[in-house]
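Forum: Protein Structure Q&A
Topic: Joint prediction for protein chains with partners

I've read a bunch of threads here and the consensus seems to be that you should model interacting components together rather than docking separate models afterwards. I'd like to see that in practice. Below is the full input, 949 residues plus whatever partners are listed. Could one of the regulars post the assembled result?
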Amino acid sequence: MSRNLSAVVAHVALILVVVIVIGILGSVASATSAGAEKFTGELEENVTLRVLENDTAIKQGYLAELIEAFNEEYKDRNITVQDANMDQYIDLENDGPYGYGPDILYQANDRIMRYPEGRHILPLPAEEFDCFEEVSEKGWQAYRRTVGGQEYTFGIPVNVQGPLLYYRKDLLPENWESEWDDDQNGVPDMVEYWTDLYRFSKQIKESGGGKFGYMRSFLEPYFSVGYLYSYGGYTFGNNNTDPSDIGHSAGNAEYGARIIRQLATVMDERCIDDSVTTGAYAAIASGEFFATITTPDVYTMFVDEMKAAGYSDEFIAENLVTTYIPKLPASGDLEDESQGFIECNMMGGIQGYAISSYTKYPNAALAFVKFATSYQMIKRRNELLGIVPARKDVADEVGGLSEVINNNLESGNITVMPSIKENAQIWTPLQTLFQDLAKDAFRTGAEVKYATLEAMKEALKKVDTQIYDSIFTLQ
Amino acid sequence: MKDTDKKANPFVVFGGALRKGVAKVKNFFRSLPARLKEKFAGAKEILTQGNGKVAASMCVMGLGQLLYRQWAKGILYLLVQIAFFAYFILKGAGDFIGFFTLGITESNAWYGIEGDNSVIMLLMGILSIIALVFYFVIYVANIKDAYRIQCAVDTMKKPESFKKELASLLGKNFHKTALALPIVGVCVFSVLPIVFMIVIAFTNYGGAVVPPALVDWVGLDNFGKILSLGQFAPTFFKIFAWNILWAVLSTFLNYFAGLGLALLLNRKCVRGKTFWRLFPILAYAVPGFITLIAFKFMFSYGGPINQMITGAGGTAVGFLDIDAKWTARLIGLAVNAWLNIPSGMLLATGILSNVNTDLYEAARVDGASPWKQFVRITLPYVLFATMPVLISQFIANFNNFGIFYFLRGGLYMDGYFLASDTDLLINWLYNMSIDNNYYSIGAAISIIIFVVTSIISLTVYVLSPSYKQEETYQ
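Posted by a regular:
Agreed with the consensus. Here's the joint model:
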């Protein structure tokens, strides 16, 4: 028995020895890798880069133009760029290390800035870019992050995203110049001040006929949280970088909650859920809605619907108007203009380019990003896609809303979406709150939950606690 | 109480069956030592009676067989050992150790440090353990084979040739041949992901700890959190209670509505049965999530139902909005019924076509009413045949993710932690693991779901006629 047992023990011991030796060797081997500086300034030649752009740029042909221009510029070095042909919501954390991700990606700041902590994107030499002086500090801030004790810039801002008011000029009352332009500045008050848009919407709703003045679902926090920001609320403290400080209830944010509740009363129940969101284009085209709020990049959707409704291009160009968001009453009450007005601070985003840490050709990728963010290409991007350029020189030249939005970004009237990963945990609690506030406008009797500002403040505090808990409770 | 009354009382029946079940479990554990002793008697015999050639096979696989001049078998066993050692030296050992360490070097893509990916290491570690188990099984088979040859030689018999043993794999040992590949497949595609999910529950994977950060083992901490955290435990029990109610109600509704529809369309007086059966099948054929999105729109404020209500002068109803707890739950039940009744109907139609019509004839002669016939003949028969399906439907409903995700997702309610009042445990698990990145807590909840559904399913199955009276209908 002892002989046979010894044989078994010898066999098991052999396996154990293999395990231990391999374990020691493995740990020694993995600790000896070395790093290298990625941007050496020497362009890699005869290479192909994959760029992940947004769908609109691909559909409208901008990416094809950009690729053609870059490939022509760098044909001597045989550097070519091609469409990465990947889903916009690529998971660089999981795909990048295995070589499946793009070399260059174009995304909004909240998506790009999920990557720095895991070092999935490269820190960029922002000061080398010719747009460095042209992009506002707010634009750069969206792409800065401290990693390993040092602050880096991880993206190059291209496009400022912020909501705009879309309205039908031909649906203004005939006497608007005498009745709805108190300051006689030639701009209808209902697109300049929320109090007037509220009053105008109330008139339209009460006159019956199933038409509405302003209509927009409150379900999307991106479009609703700005009312809280306007009165002192914020998402994260320390310029949206400190997740332990959540401030949707800060300052007089409850005024913003009251604005939402008041606006809901001049709409119908569709503002509670999202059933009106996709139908808004057709509703503006049919004249069911006078105005709504959405982002600049969907302008063509309104145009298409109006064309389908039989309007000519000239009519659309003249009567489908986009303008900046109206001013809010300082009193926080849409029925009280006595304290004057404040700017409406809305949530926005900055879209830009970043370079994957897993690219084999970092210098060529950097050259492409420099090319794509040059004055000419950004101007062309604006012409073709109607984006609001983050470069001030282009924004100033094209003027109009681009200039206004850039100024608003600089003056702090557009709050850039937080770039920290905890931002992913704010949406559902806020969505629930906004749905509840909008619903409250249609509750009656004892069902009403937010009859007072105190009740609204409590609800906002509860949301802050909920977000805090979702971020920290289980960590 | 009379004896007949006792028998009729379902609680007494349940209690009796439960007692029997408990007794069976007790017997199982009581007889375990004896059965283990019996099982290992063979091993003891090999260790005590095995000769030097058997010991050679213990040291080097196939060596004993080679010494007995069983060349082909000996070489095959030897090759298995060489292949295993090659795998283990090149990869397996590292993976095996990695399973315990979960990595020691963080990767850093900026400096080209590949580092360790704890999640991949966990997965590969499990794979190496499965490989070790396979190796152990073959190793034991090799020793048994060497001892079998020794016994044959000792009793002056000729050991079975390799050719003959190979032929037996297509004859008396065909079950081994047939099951070999499926077992490997099950291990890789089924056991591996399940074990992976289970072990995740014992780590801190999630939140801030996602690769390239290194994951650590945390023992039972995640289960402790579920039961002890102030916000967590009340939410768990609230959702759990609703989940049980949902699973029972939806299974009951779908099953009996399907059976009722099948009985209705089975009646001789119904004309155009094929035509009528087509409608539920059409509902069944449409992909579930499309149906759910369509229902969500139908019940939304801008949907056709509210348009009709407001068109008729009424006020729009928030069927699925924030205040619609029970309305949304009832709509969920109804929509789930819409999706699942067709399959229940098809199942029952097939089973009903096999019922012996003589039984009904006899019942009618005895004066049994149609209800009595249903309760005494149809229902027991259908229940007997479909009990395993019914249990699987219960589990599917218990884990029905899509219904409330599509109908009423995106809400966190007061009194619930990261969940709404219509969410089931599976939705809560999704909220935590996908929306909030708490993978390990999600895995811990899924283990709890697994334990609960297993206990309920096994109890129901053991108490069911399908288990107790298996021979009745054979």
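Chain A has 20 helices and 16 strands.
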